Amino acid sequence: MKNLKLKAARAAKDLSQEELAVLCGVSRQTISAIEKGDYNPSIKLCIAICKALDKTLDDLFWE
Questions:
Q1: Residue 27 backbone phi and psi in degrees, to 5
Q2: Phi then psi dihedrals of residue 4, to 5 deg
Q3: What Rg value do the Cα atoms of the chain yield, rounded?
Q4: pTM for the full model?
Q5: CA 55, CA 27: separation in Å to the nearest integer?
């Protein structure tokens, strides 16, 4: 399932996938795969993404 909430939050912060990846310590491909729904990130990575985007886990990863 695509993570459109993550993509929208990243775009709202005017961050590229590469910039978010650097902030989170992962590759751009990892961020892309999460957004496409091809990769289920660890809770540690979910938290890093949320901190980088000033969002909660509920905002980005739960319905």
A1: -85, 160
A2: -70, -25
A3: 10
A4: 0.92
A5: 20
Whole-angstrom Cα distance, residue 34 to residue 32? 5
The two structure tokens encoding residue 41:
């990130």
**Which among 56, 54, 26, 2 has a CA at the least distance from the CA of 17?**
26
- In the chain, the amino acid numbered 30 is T
pLDDT at residue 63, rounded to an integer: 76
Q: What is the pLDDT of residues 15-54, one digit of tens each?
A: 999 999 999 999 999 999 999 999 999 999 999 999 999 9
| CA–CA gap between residue 62 and residue 5 (Å, rounded) | 10
Q: Any idea what the Cα angle at residue 31 is, between residues 47 and 7, rounded to 5°?
A: 85
